[in-house]
Amino acid sequence: MRIISVVGARPNFMKIAPFIRAIETYNHQLPPIPITHLLVHTGQHYDDRMSQQFFEQLGIPAADINLEIGSGTHAGQVGHAMIALEKVFVEHTPDWVVVVGDVNATLAASVSAKKLNIKVCHIEAGLRSGDMTMPEEINRLVTDRLADLLLTPDTLSSENLRKEGVPEEKIKFVGNIMIDTLESQREKAASLSIEAIVKENVLPGKQFTFHSSLFSQYALVTLHRPSNVDNPHIIKAIIEFLTKEVTKDMTVIWPIHPRTEKQLANFGLLSMVLDCKKLILLQPLGYHDMLRLNMDASIMLTDSGGLQEECTVLGTPCLTLRWNTERPVTLREHGGASVLVGNNIERIREEYHYTLTRQRKPLQPELWDGNTAPRCVEAILTSGTS
Ligand code: UD1
Prior knowledge:
- This protein is of the alpha/beta class.
- The protein contains 16 helices and 13 strands.
- It has helices at 10-28, 52-57, 74-92, 104-115, 135-146, 155-163, 177-190, 194-201, 226-229, 232-249, 258-266, 270-275, 287-296, 305-314, 345-356, 372-385, and strands at 2-7, 36-41, 65-66, 96-100, 119-123, 149-152, 171-173, 218-222, 251-255, 279-282, 299-302, 318-320, 338-340.
- It has a seven-stranded parallel sheet with strand order 3-2-1-4-5-6-7, sandwiched between helices. Strands 10-9-8-11-12-13 form a six-stranded parallel sheet, sandwiched between helices.
- Helix 1 packs across helix 7, helix 1 (10-28) crosses helix 16 (372-385) and helix 3 (74-92) packs across helix 4.
- The two termini are 13 Å apart.
- Uridine-diphosphate-N-acetylglucosamine (UD1) binds at residues 9-11, 44-47, 50, 71, 103-104, 135-136, 224, 257-259, 262.
- Residues 9-11, 44-47, 50, 71, 103-104, 135-136, 224, 257-259, 262 line the site of uridine-diphosphate-N-acetylglucosamine.
């Protein structure tokens, strides 16, 4: 059986790593139907810190093909990737194209593959935010409409697909593949020193004096969604809250996404964060460094989807700076660690103070057990041969 997996952006890498490992394990058993696997990287993320370092740290083999599409508008990225992927699929004639998550590569690969009548498997299917202003929601809807095999991370996602009329035989609840990576890397991350991580990753231009008490209590921040970082008033209000209020209680550690750094520079807001002594700006972190910081953070403030899930498993109280989530299983009402606060500062402030009173409470949703990838391989083999 021939499988091509397609990745493009940072959140894809921690999902594809365990899948590739599960294929290798399967092939080692000398099965009657071995799997030939090709990895294609669209090149949407290209900085070493956004891409290469994850390949090295998570033991992902170098991509067999890199399409080098780079940054651009959504239509530009998807269009270029579709054209290039079509050539790859025609040349290598896979039985299955496997896509993960909800980035532009996920959409491009699904459409190109289906137009060539190639079967598509979507790992992390069925997530729905209901928010059509989110580019990822469009990617999810199109991908799931086209996919032949929809592997879901939780039963709520399976239910979403049923409501949309996806036939039962295409849906398989396998668990959360990203948690395979978390579980396999937890020990390594735990051995790292927080102080060393900060020292080694400080954003060039950020000056501050190190002392270990800085890390006794800290908030961890990540922001990159257009809804938060593309509007100067919104991002300024968030920065004021972080620099004037949160820093009164604790240090703020903020590994900054390249798009956010560029926007802060465009809006003339970079000096506000560079000048604040208790806010430490870091460059984008590697997998283990981020996991280590998450393990001891007093609170996370984020607009990332994956971090909501990691906080849930680690028990880190999490303020999600969004008005909706495609991952309701991570919310407090479902036993998770996260609460939606949007980007309204009064709401953020209120939940921030309430959240500080809460204890860490790790949760393991059903089948978030570190063994999702073998279930994905099994599901493809079963569908592929039936
Ligand atoms: C993409 C995903 C998003 C995911 C995020 C994680 C889509 C629609 N969005 O958003 O779901 O949460 O990745 O990071 O696919 N840039 C660099 N170097 C890079 C990559 C990006 O400098 O290696 C800068 C460029 O200015 C670029 C901007 O970041 O224009 C945005 O990058 P892009 O890949 O378009 O989207 P993300 O915001 O990263």
